[in-house]
Structure formats: C-alpha cells, structure tokens
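2024-03-11 09:14:02 DEBUG pipeline.ingest accepted 1 chain
2024-03-11 09:14:02 DEBUG pipeline.ingest length=490
2024-03-11 09:14:03 DEBUG pipeline.predict start
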Amino acid sequence: MSAGKHPRFGVSPPDGGWGWVVVGCCFMVTVCTRAVTRCISIFFVEFQGHFRTDYAATAWIHSLVDCTTMLCAPVGSLVGNRWSSRVAVMVGGVLSSCGLLLSSLSSSLEMLYFSLGVLTGVGFALCYTPSIALVGCYFRRRKALAYGVAMSGSGIGTFVLAPVVQLLIERYSWRGALLVLSAFVANLCVCGALLRPITLQEGEEPRDVSSQDTELALKLSKESTNSCLSSATLLPLPLRPGNPVPGLNRRRCFSSCFLSGEEYRFLLLPDFLGLAASFLFLASGCSLPFVYLVPFALSAGVGQQHAAFLMSILGVVDILGNITFGWLTDRRGLKPHRLACYVVAVAMEGLCCLFVPLLRSFALLVPFAVLYGYFDGAYVALIPVVTSDVVGTPYLSSALGVVYFLHAIPYLLSPPVGGWLVDVTGSYTATFFLSGAALLASALVLATVAGIRRCHLIAVAMDARLEPLPPQPDQSGCFVKEAVGRGVAS
C-alpha cells in the first residue's frame, strides 16, 4: 500500500499531532458544506419572489443539494480510497465553488436546480466523506471528541453564516450573496491541501482492541472466501487491512482486496442493516426543521432578522452538542453506551419537533432552537463513531459513503413533501409532525436492533459458559470431564 495514497491501519492512530490539523480541516469542510447547505433556505423568499414560484418548487433546490451530496457520498469514498482525501477535497472545492458561481448568474429556477442543486452537491460530496473518514484514521482513544470538534463546524458555520447571508442578500441581492459564498467555498481547496495521508512505522502494535472489532472479525472470518483478506485483515485482531503478511506484497494485497467488492462486506452484517434502516427514517425527518424553521417563524409574525437569528441560535447550540457529547461519550463510563446515547439524542429531537406548532412567538421558539440544536449536534457527532463501532475502522470510509448515500432519497423527497403539506393544509403543523414522527421511528428501530443484539450476545455468552470442555487427563492418567461454569466439575 503506497504511503502517499492510503493510511496504514496496522498500527494505533497517533491520537494527536497532525491529527488536530486534520480535525481543523474537517471542521472547515463541514462549515463550507453542511452550514452553507443549511443557509440555502434563507434564499427561499428571494427565489419565490424573483421566479414567482411556490414553496414546493423552491424547496427542490435544497432537496437537490442534500440529495446529491449524500447520493454521491460513495463517489467521495471511492476517490479517497483510490487516490487520497487530499485529491477528493480539492476537486470537490473547485466543483462546488463553480456551482455557486453559476448559480449567481442563473436566469431560471431550472438552472438553479442544476448549478446550485447538482453541481454544488457533487462538489460537497467529494469533500465531506473523505475528510470525515480521515479523522477516524488519526484517532482512537479520543475519537468521539475529535469528531465532536470536527462536526461542530456545521453549527458554528450556521451561527455565523445565517445572519451574514441575510445581510449580504439585503445589501447585494441574492445574486451577490451567492457570489460571495462561491469565493468562501473555494477555501475547501486549501483544506484539502492540508489533509496529509497518515503514514506510521511498521511493527507497532495497537494499544487496545474493541469488542466491536473482535466481534466483527469473528463474523467476517466465518464468511471469508478471500485468502488475502482473511489472512491480512482478520489476523491478528483488530481488523486492519494494512497488517504485514509474510510472503505477500502489501500493495498487491491491497489491490486484490480493496479494488474489488471486499471493502463492502460489512453490508452483510445484521447490525449494519439495522443501522441503515434507522438512518433512512432519520434522514426523512432531520432536514425539515432547518428548511422550514425560518418560514414558520415568519408566518407566526416573527421579524426577518429574528427569524434568521433562530438559525444562529440553533447553530451555536449545535456546537455545544457536538463537543460535549463527543467528550462525554469518550469517558470510560459512557464509552460502551455510545449507541444508547445516540438513540436518546435522536428521540429527543423527534419530541422537540412535535411541539413546534404550539410555539407562535420568538420567545417560545428560542427554547426549541436550543434543544433541537443541542441534540442535533449530539447525534451528528456520533454518526461516524457509531458507524465505526459497528463496522470497524478499516471499513469506515466505505461505510460512511453508504451511510450518507442512504440519506439521499429522504433528503430529496422530504422538503418538497413538507412544502406540499404547507400548500395543502395552509400551515406548518403537518410538516413538523412528519419530522417528529420520522425521528422517533429512527430511534425506535435502532433501539429495537440494539435490544435484539444484546439478547443475542447474552444467549451466546450463556451457551459458552455451559458448553463442556473436552475430557482432560488428571494426574493419574484418567480422563475427567470438566464444564465451563462457576468452577465446578461435573
């Protein structure tokens, strides 16, 4: 495996050093991608007035950005795996900046669908997944904290950009605001240049082996039919495609395994399938509040600046959720319960959405923005961590590509469906109820899967304790039968 292209996984991540520069770059990537995407809803009123369209037609712009970003996430993983995260992010920065530049020159809503929705979304996709996956290569013990800091860029970016974008629209019109955003997003190329591929010395041993890695290795070893993967990856534990194998050329081994479908073998794991089903419901509900919070506040009589400030509040509290949840779930007491913390965060978000129709003033919408923002930051920071716990670090880049790919269709359909509900019912109640129900369903699915998994592990442990050992000879040469249990021989 070439050091300039791919990280080596046969050693422990450094948990620091240049890794913090990578965290900073990933932070800026989330600012330039997710925060900019969230702020697109601020342009909705301007688009409706200029192109004389309704909510549903305008919402397709936001849907296309989100959908394309997630739909092309596996492409970002592919480019990052084949070449490097540096190449993927720099190319993505060029594409997304050009997309925003063309959007400022758009003469029709259909052109905005392509330039702002598709072209910018493809650029964001090339940047997002590779940068997030590289953080996981640099950290193990402080992985949740590192991801918390990196993913907080979405919240900080929303806090800063929301009022700035509103000010730019008022001063330079929506065309000038998009032009400024184009120059801002070009900074992705700088971030990509700083994403140094991790290269560690041979022979260093991992400091700890997680139970998830061990369980995954046992599952995959039973299914493995590829001798290169089974010898190079599964032995010794934990799973690391870069472990040296006597008699095998490292580059040839990597090519035979990871240029085929072996890097997606985690798709056969029942735990990942349950996680995927949960993500489908999550994606159906999580984007609606960001799209319709400002229009809902305006319909309730809240002023333009106060409505935009709600997005800022949501964004700054999102930062607290990113960092504090990341720090807490790295503690020894909560580290084994990361999945439960994730489920709680998603469920609380769903409950918050159910109460939005009752909040008809700025003073009442502020607590919603605080609570929703905090739990949104919490679960966003834990998505890569929970995914890594389920599939293992070697498969993280490919798994994140699949995870974000699963967000694509819900991201595409949910905002227009929400806009259609607003047009049909004349209110935002049904839209926020849809969001809350989808988020609660996501939490319920994952909680059910986690419960089934726990019961299965308990049953396996009980079977292992009761399974008799082979007859063992005693000192006199006679065979006696022992049982694994509480230290009592049968």
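2024-03-11 09:14:41 DEBUG pipeline.report The CA atoms of residues 142 and 331 lie 9 Å apart.
2024-03-11 09:14:41 DEBUG pipeline.predict end
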